[in-house]
Design goal:
The chain has about 375 residues and is an alpha/beta fold. It folds into 3 domains: about 90 residues, Helicase, Ruva Protein, domain 3 (Orthogonal Bundle), CATH 1.10.8.60; about 170 residues, P-loop containing nucleotide triphosphate hydrolases (Rossmann fold, 3-Layer(aba) Sandwich); about 90 residues, Orthogonal Bundle (Arc Repressor Mutant, subunit A), CATH 1.10.10.10. Helices cover about 50% and strands about 10% of the residues. It has 16 helices and 7 strands. The strands form 2 sheets. A 5-stranded parallel beta sheet has the order 2-3-4-1-5, sandwiched between helices. Strands 6-7 form a two-stranded antiparallel sheet. Strand 6 and strand 7 form a beta hairpin. It is globular. The termini are far apart. The model has no long low-confidence stretch (mean pLDDT about 90).
Amino acid sequence: MKPNLLSWEETLFRDQDVFDLNYVPEQFDYRDDQTQSLVFAIRPGIKGGKILDTVCRGPPGTGKTTSVKKIFDSLRETTQAILPIHVNCRIDASEYAVFTRIYTSLTKRGPPPSGTSVKQLIDMIARFVEQEQIQPLVCLDDANYLIYENQFNKVLYPLLRMHEVFPGINFGLIIIISDPGIDLQNSLEVRVQSTFHPEIIQYPPYSAREIAGILNERVKQGLYPHVLPTELLDVIIDHVMKHGDVRLGLDLIKRSVLYAEKAARKSVTEDDVQKAVDASRDLHLEMLIASLSDDECLVLKIAAELFSEETSPTTKEIMEALPAKGPKLTRISEIFKRLDRLRLIDLQYSNQGGGRRRFVHLHEDRALVLTILARREQAAD
């Protein structure tokens, strides 16, 4: 019997891009209430009024960025009164980087001349907005990175107060926060609290039914019929529910199909899915580490270097091993708490040895953590 093999030019994908993590789907389900709340906040700007500031909160992979990008695409097609600007604060994590991104997005020019101060940059942005008579709508995506680096208030304050120096200028703000552990109110300085009163839009984790619906729709768009059997898609959905991040499901489907293609099969097997699940464990850890700030990566690296199967370092030992230019004491305490929340480490208290100490147990494989951190450092270089 002739084996059911792909010929060399065949593929199992209708559209492989459908499974990319940055893909914005035409059909965006299960976030109607959140999308309508965003539209309500933006609508006054279309009529010449002030856009309401909003904060979108929820764990990673819950549709926050996608809903904003869908609305931004619609705004570009329907109005010139509002100019949407998306800033990825994971990349642009400083005051100067954010305002440079805003400047280049507004003017469609290159970065400002070397030596331009933040104040000069803000003045250049304001004068351009004043001249063009537009209302910028700035989305600070993953703004938690600005909070980690103590840059959040430095960015927010001039955007909120710009109209006092340049009357008639108003910036609309959409803030996306992907770290549930952040207390936003306590992160704001008093001078910002007095003018920043946003609408809060919550993005809860997707339910099993919703994850199934999202992944089924992507399978229809991205794969040919019968490539991924229903029972194997159910296995993928069960795995995704353990982590609560629909992006893992997209990656699992893509990897499973690529494994099937590599073996020249016309459909995915259980073995393909298992290989993808094994690979996704690394991906999940890589995504967690990618969400960390540089200071958090430094603390995690020191913890991993000091950790072994026989001994776990104390928080004091990790702090003493940090370089002189490392994070300050109060910041380190917050870093330990966040790494614990993310299940990258386990903090355990002990009264042994004549005092109460906190021991840091590495939750993930030590060698893998150090390898991913090294890859991140190389990418930054």
